[in-house]
Write a structure and sequence with these properties.
The structure is a single chain. 47% of the residues lie in helices and 14% in strands. It has 213 residues and is α/β, with parallel strands linked by helices. The chain has a single domain (41-201), classed as 3-Layer(aba) Sandwich (Rossmann fold).
Amino acid sequence: MKRFLGRFLQAVGALTLLGLALGAGLVLTAGWWLRMDDAPKKADAIVILAGDARRAIFAADLYKQGLAPVIYVSRPLHEPPQALCDQGFDCPRQEDQMLRVLAAKGVPLDAIRVYGRDLMSTVEEAEQLKLALGPEPKTLLVVTSPYHCRRAKLILSGILRGREFIMSPTPYERFDRLWWKHQGSSGAVVSEVAKFVFHFLGTPFRSHPAAAN
């Protein structure tokens, strides 16, 4: 019995060390595997996932290249810095910032579709995008941050089945493969790896009930 218990504990210890080594390896190489950079091509629509407004700059570039006739922009949950808002500072909604960037880059208003309301996660964006698109379009150019591409495609592919996703990270947002050498990249990796773990082990943050299939 003691021999069996000893071997069992050794096996558990070995598996724990293996898991830690694999986890460390995934974190260290996150600058490579988080990113997906598909070659842009003709699509039915461009989708800007909620986040940094620099995503809208690249979406406008793709639109002006004639790669898609319409751009979809979501309405994420608005959580402004209330203390600054109370002092009279500008506290625009994120989708309004996106729309201003698109307009400044020459995208006409009738080529923009705004969808959803107070969306709290990529999962909610995907669910509401499915409702907004209907059965069409089938090919989507997805613009997001470089570090968000892998998880975004995983979520979109699971919810919007039967569609092709061309992941097009904005080049206007820095993300270093050697992420530990750049503060912004480091923060992005820590946050994104944690969200990956939460995606597989937990449930997404929600501001609305799950959309019907």
